[in-house]
């Protein structure tokens, strides 16, 4: 990762999170007033393993570019305070844990179409992590395609998938970055917090670095056995279960009891409010034998997931149309202002010529070109970033 030496300046806002590593706060990039998040990590007291983990997180964040992964912009550090600053995308609608609390407080089930929408977006982010590439686009929901081969040397396992690490934002944030009210039927999912993410390897190190109650931890991780991206699929199943049931699949009074339940894979069925196809996917994900769990590709190939993927594609296309309309409006306003300024210049030129004639000066003086006094030159300008709306919209 290359550090940009010419860093922009920021205006600090409120702190929105704090942990043993440091804090997270909102900032505004002054050059364009963009709201962002700055993760402040104190590394002065870290041991060599923790520092290596921090370096690994920075490397992963800088390489994982995807619509459903929190975008990483750049990093900086303060040598005096031994603090690393990571500048990332701000997600204004909170996270999945807040959404679950909302529906729990309302005593309502999360609508099934919300669940499919959320699941597909998480899976597309996981596909990027597990296969090292973007998911192939669907032309129709009946497309036939074989599972892609995994990218050599670039398989990332998140290892800490939980509702609090699945962030929510909205397409509306492009025009209103301070919006906070969440419409859960239209949220855009952003997978984040890759602090524990690593390339494929044995799980014993994970057991020494994981912090917190393992509600979403797979049985192979609890057993200190070698694990694969399918451990993330178990965690995804636990998240989907919690969205549907508004409680975690494995509940216990003690840590040991919880471990036993996870290893045994015993949990209550998903409420009958949800379709059998959704219940089946969740059950397949929370499968103790990891060889029987589906991959992110296998789930995304499900017909209902295909339908949800096409619906999301249409939403993205609609967003580009709205952006295009927004830019057309801006250009129209610019043209109108330019025309108004030209009329003023023309009127001033006529007035000047009349005064010259009245004062007995039949010869016109050298008159300025009437081009308007606006700041935006029109000649040769291409104002449309989204002029080709039939491009590969993502």
From TrEMBL:
Pfam families for the chain: Pkinase
Residue ranges with Polar residues bias: 385-394
Species whose genome carries this gene: Kluyveromyces dobzhanskii CBS 2104
TM region positions: none
The entry's keywords: ATP-binding, Kinase, Nucleotide-binding, Serine/threonine-protein kinase, Transferase
Example of a GO MF term: ATP binding
UniProt keyword annotation of Transferase present: yes
Binding site for ATP: 39
EC number: 2.7.11.1
Reaction equations catalysed: L-threonyl-[protein] + ATP = O-phospho-L-threonyl-[protein] + ADP + H(+); L-seryl-[protein] + ATP = O-phospho-L-seryl-[protein] + ADP + H(+)
Segments forming domain Protein kinase: 10-307
Superkingdom: Eukaryota
Family statement drawn from the similarity comment of this UniProt entry: Belongs to the protein kinase superfamily.
Region (Disordered): 358-394
UniProt keyword Phosphoprotein present: no
Protein name: non-specific serine/threonine protein kinase
UniProt-listed SUPFAM superfamilies: Protein kinase-like (PK-like)
């Amino acid at each position: 990762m290359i550090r940009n030496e010419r860093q922009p300046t920021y205006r600090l806002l409120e702190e929105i999170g704090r942990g043993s590593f440091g804090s997270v706060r909102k900032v505004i990039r002054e050059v364009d007033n963009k709201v962002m998040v700055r993760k402040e990590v104190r590394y002065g007291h870290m041991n060599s393993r923790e520092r290596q983990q921090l370096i690994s997180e920075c490397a992963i964040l800088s390489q994982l570019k995807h619509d459903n992964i929190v975008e990483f912009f750049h990093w900086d550090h303060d040598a005096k305070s031994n603090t690393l600053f990571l500048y990332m995308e701000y997600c204004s609608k909170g996270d999945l844990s807040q959404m679950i609390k909302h529906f729990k407080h309302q005593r309502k089930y999360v609508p099934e179409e919300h669940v499919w929408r959320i699941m597909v977006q998480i899976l597309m982010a996981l596909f990027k992590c597990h296969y090292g590439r973007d998911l192939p686009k669907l032309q129709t929901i009946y497309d036939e395609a074989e599972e892609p081969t995994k990218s050599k040397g670039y398989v990332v396992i998140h290892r800490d998938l939980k509702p609090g690490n699945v962030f929510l934002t909205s397409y509306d944030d492009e025009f209103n970055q301070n919006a906070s009210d969440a419409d859960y039927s239209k949220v855009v999912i952003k997978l984040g917090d890759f602090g524990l993410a690593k390339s494929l390897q044995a799980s014993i190190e994970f057991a020494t670095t994981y912090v917190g109650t393992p509600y979403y931890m797979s049985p192979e991780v609890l057993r200190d056995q070698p694990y694969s991206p399918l451990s993330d699929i178990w965690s995804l199943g636990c998240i989907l279960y919690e969205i549907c049931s508004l409680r975690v699949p494995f509940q216990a009074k003690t840590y040991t009891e919880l471990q036993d339940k996870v290893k045994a894979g015993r949990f209550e069925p998903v409420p009958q409010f949800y379709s059998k196809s959704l219940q089946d996917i969740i059950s397949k994900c929370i499968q103790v034998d990891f060889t029987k769990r589906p991959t992110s590709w296998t789930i995304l190939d499900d017909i209902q997931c295909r339908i949800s993927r096409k619906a999301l594609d249409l939403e993205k296309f609609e967003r580009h149309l709205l952006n295009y309309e927004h830019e057309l409006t801006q250009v129209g306003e610019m043209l109108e202002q330019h025309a108004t300024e030209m009329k003023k210049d023309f009127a001033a030129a006529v007035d000047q010529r009349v005064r010259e004639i009245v004062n007995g000066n039949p010869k016109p003086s050298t008159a300025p070109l009437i081009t308007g006094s606006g700041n935006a030159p029109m000649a040769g300008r291409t104002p449309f970033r989204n002029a080709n709306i039939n491009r590969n919209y993502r």
